[in-house]
Structures are given as structure tokens and as C-alpha cells.
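=== Structural record ===
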Amino acid sequence: MAEIDHYDYDLPKELIAQRPLTRRVDARLLVVDRRRDEIEHCYVRDLPDLLSPQDALVLNNTRVIPARLVGYRTRTGGRWSGLFLSVDAHGLWQVLGQTRGKLQVGETVTLHDCDGRHEVKLKMLAKLDGGAWAAKPESEDSTFDVLESIGRVPLPPYIRDGEMTEQDRETYQTVYATHPGAVAAPTAGLHFTEAILNKIRQRAVRTCHVTLHVGIGTFRPISTESLDAHQMHSEWGSIDETAVQELKETRANGGRIVAVGTTSVRVLETATRSGVLQPWQGETDLFIRPPYEFRSVDALMTNFHLPKSTLLVLVRTFGGDELIQRAYDEAIREQYRFYSYGDAMLIL
């Protein structure tokens, strides 16, 4: 039985990146070669030369929505802050929220933007499991239009205590983000620019897209002592027939499937649960941990992850426990930048 303390490590606070680099591709890239049991220091701009013709890069095209909500209780004026989680077919929101005192069913919260120019009332309809609420915005606009007008970028708390700047609206988003729905960025993808993607394609490397709407549970640490006792969060994802066929051709031609981010890994491996990669759409609660055997991922580009997180467990399962521990020690010693706006690792 794997114990969670095995996935703990100490990180100096000053290594947690607070802002992205001016040029995304100037981030450092720790290359971990499993076959040779070696670690090499490169940069993201070197990635085209680290890939081989016929490889396929798998990118998660989810789009981060401005899901962080700030406002006040309409009746009392007390401060309220929260996070939009999802919306159902009837326009009902699921939100988490914090305020002094106890919210009552039927009470409204007035949400406002950073400048206080736009306001929308949110009516609390029912308390849900896990501390969430079912709520309904008092607006004729679509959910995503409302969020665009009053929502803020949902930065994780280790970046400036979650307080966004206007620049984060662009920097906390991949350049290929197309499908709104994530409440956190697929951070490995933040390193890419259109220019480096073009260089990668010029090397006859395919780029394929999947979708996984990253949920709030992604960054929550595992609180149980054993991995087996952890209840994995669920996230919505999809991969279509076109991507499946391209990836099958990649393997048939001797190329590697290179997943960009743990979110792409979850889609690929969920879509291969039958033993064969096939089109898939739905919710996945796949928890990748030892002794998991990967079926559809040959290499992984990923950022550095929080201690005791499901993401760190996934990466160490893929890269080899001892080798990835060594890589993290090396990254700390060489003062790599960690977490969402930090540097990256390529596991070959």
C-alpha cells in the first residue's frame, strides 16, 4: 500500500514562480531520459530538436474561464468570495463560496468586477455536497458572458494569494485554448507560442488536440494516508475520431505520442481503458498511481507539481519513482521555477 508521505518534498518558497517569463519559450526544460537514466538541462525553445519526425504532440485545448467570483451579500453587505465550478443544462450554477456568517437558501449575492462597474446578482437555491451551492444568476446573458463581465482569473493561492492582474487574462491561458470550461490552466501548455508550434510542425511532428476541463480538485493535496483510500475528483474530457486516427498512425509509423500535461495523459489513458485507443467523451475519475501501466503515452511534458498531489503521483508513476525524485532534487538544487508559472520537465 503506497503511503502519501512518500510523495512529500520540501520546496523553498522563493522557487514558486509568481509571474511567467516575458518569453514563454525561455522557460527551462529538465529533460529526463528513462532509457539512459539521465537528466539534462535545456530550454523549452529546444523542444523542436528534442522531438523526432513522426512524433505527435497532444495538446489540451480547454480554455480557462474567469471563474473567481467576488461580491457581497446583498442583504447584509458582508463580503463574499467564491469560485464558479460548472453550469447545467438548465442554467443552474454550482459554486463554492466563503463569507462570514451563514448563507441562507434564497439569499442573493451581488457579484462585481474588479472596477465595480458591472454587477450581477446570484441567488442561492440549495446547499450541495462538498460545501458547494446550486445558484442561479439573475441575468439574461449566457453563463460565459456573465463570467467574462464580472469574473476574475482563478489563479491558485500560491500565486500572489490568488490576486490577478489584467496581464493574467492572457498569460494564464494557452495560445491554442478554444473550449471554455476549465477553472485552472493546463500549465504545461502555457510554455507554447505559435512560433514554436510552427517549428514543431516543420519537423514533421503532428499536433493533436484533446479536451479536459481542469477542475478545482486537480490541485488539492491528497489528504488520506494511503493512495488507495483517496477519492479521485472527476473532470469532463473528450478525444475525437480524427485525433484517435492520427495517434494510431503515429504509433504505426514508429513515432511517439508525447502528452503535453497530465491533463492530456488523463484523456488518452481514459480513452484506452478498453485496451485500444478510441474516441471518448464524458467524465473521468481515473487516478494514475503505481502499478499503473500506460497504454497511450510514450513521453510527457509537464510542469513541477505540488507535494502530495495526484499530479505528482502520476508523474512519478510514469517517469519512474527514483528517477523523478532525483529530477526534483536536481531542479531544486539548480533553482528551477516551480508550479503553474514555472519551468517544465520533459520525460522521454
